[in-house]
Structure formats: C-alpha cells, structure tokens
Amino acid sequence: MRVLRDTLLVFQRSMGQTLRNPVWVVVGLMQPIYYLFLFGPVLKPVAQLQGFGGSAYNVFVPALLVQMALFGCVFVGFGLIAELRYGVIERMRVTPMSRLSMLLGRAGRDIAVLLFQSTMLVLMSIPFGLHITLSSILIIFALLLLIGLGMACLSYGLALLLRSEDALAPLLNAVFLPIMLLSGMLLPLSLAPGWLRAIGLAGSTVVVGIAVAAGLAALTISWAARSFGRSVA
Q1: Is residue 146 within 8 Å of 213, Cβ to Cβ?
Q2: N or C: which end of the chain has fewer CB within 10 A?
C-alpha cells in the first residue's frame, strides 16, 4: 500500500507539472500529425503492391502510434536531469518515499500523456480511412502501454547514469534511429529485401511483440528502480 500511495503522490505532482505547461503534449502530437497528413496519402498507391499487408492507414497509423510511444517516452529523461540539477531528487532522498514509486509515478504520467495523444491520433485518422475495432484498439493500446513504460524507465535509468543532456541525446539518437528504420514504421518490411527483413525481425506476431515488450518493460523497471535507489540513497 505504501508503494501505491507514494506512486500516486509522485504521479499527481508530475501530472500537475505537465498540465501547467501542456505545450509539450501538443508538440509531441505534431510530428505524427504531419506524417498522417503529408506522408499517409503517399502510401495509398504503395498499398496496392503485393506484400504491403493491408490498407494504407491500417498499416501506417499503428506504426505512428508505436513511433510516438518510442520517441515520446524515450526522451523523458531530460526532465529528470533538470530535477537532479535543481536538487529535487536530493530533497526527495530525505523522505521515506519508496524509490520504486519515484520511478513509477513519473512513468505513469508519461503513459497517461501517451495514451491521450494516441487516442487523439486514432480519432483524427478515422476520416482518412482507418478501420478499427474495439479488440484492435485494446491490443494496440496494451502494446503502447508496455512500450511506453519500458522506454520511459530506460530513459530515466540512463538519465540517472549519465546526468548530462549532452551525453543522453546522442546516445538515444544513435540507438533509436536504427530501431525506427528497422521496425517497418515508414514502410512495411515485407517490401524489403531478405537481409533487411532478417535484421528487422520481420514477421513477428502480435503475441510475440507483446511478450517481448512486457519482458523489456520488466527489465527496464527493475534496472531503473535500482538506479533510483543508488542515485538517491
């Protein structure tokens, strides 16, 4: 119960900060909207090619949602570095607050923002031709939750380790740009040559994807929570 109470307190504090300055929520939604309006129509002729995997927006919008989960949550560590610099984490250190809650409360805020942005993107995609069902929405949102949670915890753990925006930014870009290109977000890897499909692990099922995302989320939570404990102990 103490962990839940402390997590809620940190979540409320973090969400309050976001609501007082919601510009970053809007900014985080702008890039997917640009892709939706400016890149999505280009895919309609491509969707007729053999191996594309479905209608243009039913393939492209889920990819945008995953992209938003990756890049929207993996950069949240910059805010933690600022808190370290201004002594916020140090002041929390002297309280009996759970170290795991210090992580999960912040990550919970990031997930709430992600799910709000994802809902808005899905609603805007329906007039373009996105066809959705309740089961598909539940599956994709569950996957987004796991991806976002894993990426947010990874970002916080790296922020505690590096403690510098100058070190964190190039590391994240170097790691996650290849992940984006090999994920099939921009075009399905079914259209790619065999060697590129092998690198990108094309053909994984939804069940496998959820299982992998859940495993990675568990690992990053465990590692980041220990990093919080070492950093603020």
Answers
A1: yes
A2: N
